[in-house]
Amino acid sequence: MPPIPPAARHRTRRVTSLAVSLVTGAAFAAVATGPASAAAGCEVDYTVQNQWNNGFTAAVSVTNLGDPVDGWTLEWDFTAGERVTNGWNGEFAGSGDHVSVGDAGWNAAIATGASVGFGFNASHGGAPELPESFTLNGTACTGDTGEPPGEEPPDEEEPPTTGEGRQVEELDRGLVSVHGSRGNLVSWRLLATDPEDVAFNVYRGSTLLNPQPLTEATSYLDGGASADARYTVRPVVGGQEAEASETSLALRDGYLDVPLDVPSGGSGYTYDANDASVGDLDGDGEYEIVLKWEPTNAKDNSQAGRTGPVLLDAYELGGERLWRIDLGRNIRAGAHYTQFQVYDFDGDGRSEVAAKTADGTVDGTGGVIGDAGADHRNGDGYILSGPEFLTMFDGRSGAELDSVDYVPGRGDVCDWGDCYGNRADRFLAGVAYLDGQRPSLIMARGYYTRSVIAAWDWRDGRFTRRWTFDSDDAGSEWAGQGNHQLSIADADGDGRDEVMYGSMAVDDDGGGMWSTGHGHGDAMHVGDLLPDRSGLEVFTITERTGGAAGAYVAEAATGDVVWRRPTASGEEGPGRGVAADVWPGNPGSEFWVAGGGVSGVYDAEGDRLGVRAPSSVNFVSWWDGDPLRELLDGTRIDEYGTGGDTRLLTGSGVASNNGTKSTPALSGDILGDWREEVVWRTEDNRALRIYSTPVPTELRMPTLMHDTQYRVAVAWQNTAYNQPPHPSFFIGDGMEPAPWPEVYTP
């Protein structure tokens, strides 16, 4: 199917863009005191966003066209008596007409081809005018690059290329030291890009701790060590020790607190730290956190009322806030409205952030998308008119990179199952490797009746729509089959991902793959749930009153139902369901649900196992040293047992999210070895608290974040009714050695 050209871009009106010729050999004042020996160049985009009687707001974007810059100062002269009154994302100075803006520290680095932005408010004496010229570190910004005398022009940078397998992040070791009663568990990533026979040496300071290189698990218990001890690890390949890793993060109390900048609330609401995701926003190999702030007056789609705006923040693990995006009054707050995706979509080594936006969204540099003054809310607080956008934001600065019309638009609200705005605004999002190598963005609308899924590629700084699936066009058997979440997997084993949408699946080319007809549900799990069967399986629950399949397992490739359990007569279907291997007494996964009169624990054939059901029906997590998964619910982790569960962790001073769903901000393999971390907000919202296991293991496997089914599951985890991630292979009792993913890094 040929790519569909993107819709028109929506940006604030620009006064102009400057593009003039470069002065060569200029001094880079913020980098060095001598003349620069490399080419330099820059382009400035100066935008007046708002203007009033005696003042205005401007946004400035600087694009570096030369060699990478680490530290910058942009200077210009006002021409009509303008004066800066306050600014953001930079250090402002100057005298009279002259303005000097330096980096704010966190945004000091500008890679070749990258941009950095800042904004300010200023006064004027009549109308603001365009500055005649700008300089970056003393170099005139002209839109061209020049070469120092006597040097050959550098080779033109090639666009990201594909390697063997699938594109993944170039991560560091994620080295952590988790203090517990037995000492420090030192834990690090085994990368899928490592040689399979790589071994490791562990150092406390300069002291080698292991007498022989470690060839099994990528963790080491340093018994009796101080909580403040610092560690590094060194890979050993062919008997040769390689470069040391970064120094360990110390989880002195078993957790790491990431301080948060709590936003001010508004009339009748404050903010809670809600769902989170991770991505390498700056390309340094370490994950940053993107956090959604939910106002306390957020609404379910079925509830009328206005809400405060939704905010997105980005944080380094040390707590430095990189940026804040305000989605604005025209994006309603609630679990079904904002699904944000954090991923390296273009393969440049840095993650972008994609989200649905609207008139009045303010990006991380202060730039406004669409009409800043528009208010499309109706009297009941619903937003049923006005433009809808899909925006890609720069992960480093939060700046808008591009915006297109959101597909599908709402059209006639009544087409989605009701006329007051409930079902029209049910959104899902994900990431899929539709071509088998590079990631695409999945954005969707609707699942109760009509379902529309759009696939987008982000390449060369622009959106291209790959395909659109519309149940109205596909046929009646596709209507009403979507869930409150989606999953992504290579369902048919052809190397390309499919969109698993509940009781239906859409193929990698946008065509309908299968539909079971069992309808909408609240939870779904996709993975190698039954390793004795070939391929992947889907376990889902459905809401239909008295339905024939309140819970069922189907083959991911065909939709053929393996087994099903009906909902009790007259009852609505189950509201929760889990598939995971939590008990060694049964091969493969166990299945259990809550509600709908479907009770008990089920095996691969759909038979009751005759053992007590686990104490929770929510998330699951690999926490201790064995391959069985543990129960994650609220602020605790438990190990299942037929005679009763065993508490492994009770989070201290933390809170879960999303009401009775009681989900963490994030759960996934984001640090250390293959086991999973859990991230909760503290009760006062002043930090995200990351817990990592203190328990040793004998199991060795590459980081789950290099299994792309698992990695994209971490990306879509924040979508609507959050669900835990599953890899593409079975992890559980009696498992085969973990496969080595075929991947490459940009």
From TrEMBL:
The keyword Signal applies. SMART domains: CBD_II (SM00637). Residues 129-169 are annotated as: Disordered. Residues 35-144 form the CBM2 domain. GO terms for biological process: carbohydrate metabolic process. It holds the Pfam family CBM_2. Residues 149-159 have a biased composition (Acidic residues). Residues 1-29 form the signal peptide. GO terms for molecular function: hydrolase activity, hydrolyzing O-glycosyl compounds; polysaccharide binding. Keywords: Signal. This is CBM2 domain-containing protein. The lineage of its organism: Bacteria, Bacillati, Actinomycetota, Actinomycetes, Streptosporangiales.
